[in-house]
UniProtKB/TrEMBL annotation:
InterPro entries: DUF3108. This is DUF3108 domain-containing protein. Keywords: Signal. It comes from Chelatococcus sambhunathii. Residues 1-30 form the signal peptide. The lineage of its organism: Bacteria, Pseudomonadati, Pseudomonadota, Alphaproteobacteria, Hyphomicrobiales. Pfam families: DUF3108.
Length: 293
């Protein structure tokens, strides 16, 4: 998924996992009004790299029968914070129909090493209509140019985490992994292809490092998908990190259900990077039902 895929650029661990997790924006987009009672997921994640704690992420997701909104914040810690002081937040909203996700707005703001990045774009019918990237990408002849066609039938990195499952059976089935996610992050266009690998059981964090104030929430079955990355545009062909990620077979995502919906959301993501194994694991995964507006 996009979370690990951005870790394809592991020159700075903070950027690798921050952007990987759809990283961030300090701007707030108004969440859409729900036509019916809304289900909200409140999750906290621990970020590790090569076995070392490097940060935390918090995410809130709202889902009703046809729409969603996602808000995320990421903060680096430990040795990574010492080198980069990386942090950020991101927000996205949109609609879904069956298994198709149709984002309408995305915003991202990250900061590391006293350098910031702000990305905002609006979409309609799966196509990017307005785009703002600061600082703007520098023109390069060796980069595969992102065309207008590359900005159609896409989702933003945060919306890529929302995985509705069509049909009426158990959403936690091998079929949940049967998808290719066309991602555009404002600078690059890439595909993430998921395939079924196995079923696992998610369990609350009972380690000494567990947050004593966090509600563990979900415990139960999850479906595990293998992930593969394919660069489409905005990248430099043949560059070492691009080749590494396209050949990377050590990437997977564990999907847990948002109770009361047919939508799945990552409970755990792991990806092999050139710096070691990057893992994002839920330490709290709580689903709440709110009253109709």
């Amino acid at each position: 998924m996009p979370l690990p895929l951005m870790a394809a650029r592991p020159r700075i661990a903070a950027r690798a996992l921050g952007a990987a997790f759809a990283a961030a924006a300090f701007v707030t987009l108004a969440a859409p009004s729900a036509a019916s009672a809304e289900t909200r997921l409140r999750a906290r994640y621990a970020l590790t790299l090569a076995g070392f704690d490097i940060g935390t992420a918090t995410m809130q997701t709202g889902v009703d029968k046809a729409r969603y909104d996602v808000n995320l914040s990421v903060r680096m810690s430990g040795i990574v914070k010492f080198f980069t002081n990386g942090k950020g937040a991101a927000t996205s909203r949109g609609a879904y129909q069956d298994a198709r996700v149709l984002p309408s707005a995305y915003a991202l703001n990250t900061r590391a090493n006293d350098k910031g990045q702000v990305v905002r774009f609006a979409l309609a019918g799966g196509a990017v209509r307005q785009l703002s990237v600061e600082p703007p990408p520098k023109p390069r002849r060796d980069i595969v140019q992102v065309t207008d066609a590359d900005k159609k039938n896409v989702v933003d990195p945060l919306s890529a985490l929302v995985m509705p499952v069509a049909g009426s059976g158990d959403p936690l089935s091998p079929a949940a992994c049967d998808r290719t996610i066309p991602v555009f992050d404002g600078r690059q266009r890439y595909d993430v292809t998921l395939t079924y690998d196995r079923m696992e059981t998610a369990k609350p964090d009972t380690s000494d490092n567990a947050d004593p104030n966090a509600k563990a929430g979900y415990e139960g079955k999850v479906v595990v998908c293998k992930a593969r990355y394919k660069a489409i545009a905005g990248h430099r062909p043949g560059r070492e990190n691009v080749v590494f990620m396209e050949n990377n077979k050590d990437m997977e995502v564990w999907l847990a259900p948002i109770e009361g919906t047919r939508t799945l959301f990552p409970w755990k993501i792991s990806v092999r990077t050139e710096l070691g194994l990057a893992v994002i694991t839920a330490t709290s995964f709580v689903v709440e039902k709110s009253a109709a507006l």
